[in-house]
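Worked example

This section walks through a single chain of length 84. The input is the sequence exactly as stored; nothing has been trimmed or padded.
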Amino acid sequence: MLSMRLMRFGAAKKPFYRIVVMESKSPRQSRAKDFIGNYNPLSDPVEFQIDLEKAKSWLAKGARPSQTVQSLLARASRRNKPSD
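Given that input, the structure is written out below as C-alpha cells.
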C-alpha cells in the first residue's frame, strides 16, 4: 500500500521535511516514488508547499496520507481556495 508521509532532512535539532509518496512498509529514509512538497516546522509561521495536483492524483491511486500530511493538505486546500 502507498502512503504519503514525511521524510526527514536537515541537521540535528533543525529538521526539515519533504512530503513524499512511498510504500508504507519501507523505512523513512528509503527511496520515494514521488516528492510532492516540503514542510519546515521551525520557521515562524510554519512554511510548507504542496503540489495539490500531484497529491490529488496519488490520493486517487489509493495512497493514504499520514495524520500530519492530511492536516497539511487540508491547510493547503483552504489556502488555495478561491474566495468569492
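What to look for: The CA atoms of residues 12 and 55 lie 29 Å apart.
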